[in-house]
Amino acid sequence: MSTNTESDNADAKPTTTPDADTIDTEPQVEPEEEDEVEVSPDVEAETEPVEPDNDDVTGKEVPKEADDEIANGDDAETEGEADAEDDGEAVVTGPPQQFQAAIKGGAIKEFVGTLRAIVDEAKIRVDPDGIQTRAVDPANVAMYDASLAAGAFESYDATDGVLGVNLKRFAEILKLAKKDDLVQLSFNTTTFKLVVHIDGVEFTMALIDPDSIRKEPELPDMDLPVSFTIEEAQIRRSVKAADMVADHIRFRCEEAEETVFIEAEGDTDNVSLELTESDLAALTAAEGQALYSLDYVKDISKQFPRGTEITLTFGSDFPMMIEYEFSNGECEVLAMLAPRIQSD
């Protein structure tokens, strides 16, 4: 299953309001009009069915405590923008007045490749401290929050702004860069295009209107009881084994035994990896288990940098948080994956 699909385009037309000339002004009709509820395009999008194998990261099958946080992401963002305006903080929605940077090919390819695991387009927010993006896949199953600090760049100069980037196209251009090649990036404020220099080759890449890209969701605040840190090679190994027998992968923790199990159950075969405290870099044990789409776990785990420690946090039938760093800690990645809820 490929999750690298184009993000939803915000071209939906708003619900039209009835012409004032056609509205009956008799008193007995007015209460009925007040009782009618218009359905916005956003609500329609949230209620559309998703693939049967995946539970919506904004869907009703997620436990209520987690669902309330995730499902209100767009509303929370709007409220956050209003709060920022009340506090006198300007919400930047336009392109930067200045963006010029140079970075090693390996670092920028890791960053873009991470996002490409779930989306093909993203809003890249730039400011003097670095670049940051948050994106959710079209099926609302997986979300990324990733930041690349200014310290990861060889040189960096930027003002606040937002760039709409076609990640698929950007990744194709970056294929020309080797790990240690210098990739120079600049934003042309006249043409509103991103200029990319790689080893003497210059690309001028058209950008996307950020308003046409899906809104960034708010990160939910959840108290997840189980947390463990493991080498990425162990995750890859367990995912490879699970892929031999099933379409889903279960993470389970036994508090008394201080043991984590990564399991998969197929129609005829099962697989299980047992990890004790001695096998892990860190463990916060509690009773809990949750099932996740193996396709999504595979896509996310493929982007783990080699030799990196991965921290996974989860609770019974709650989303899983997956955190790691690369570029000497200058790039921080948080992925969130919705659980697969099994009916009784």
Care to describe what's here?
The protein has 344 residues and is α+β, with helices and mostly antiparallel strands. Among the domains are: 99-212, Proliferating Cell Nuclear Antigen (Box); 226-337, Proliferating Cell Nuclear Antigen. 21% of the residues lie in helices and 33% in strands. A hairpin with a 4-residue loop joins β11 (248-254) and β12. α5 runs antiparallel to α6 (167-174) and α7 runs antiparallel to α8.
Helix content: 10-25%
Count up the helices.
Answer: 8
Kindly identify the CATH topology of the domain at 99-212: Proliferating Cell Nuclear Antigen
Kindly report how far apart the N and C termini lie.
Answer: 26 Å
Order of helices and strands: HHHHEHEEEEEHEEEEHEEEEEHEEE
pLDDT < 50 runs, ≥5 residues: 1-54, 58-88
Q: Give the name of the CATH architecture of the domain at 99-212.
A: Box
Strands in their spatial order, largest beta sheet: 6-2-3-4-18-17-16-10-14
| Rg over C-alpha atoms, rounded to the nearest angstrom | 23 Å
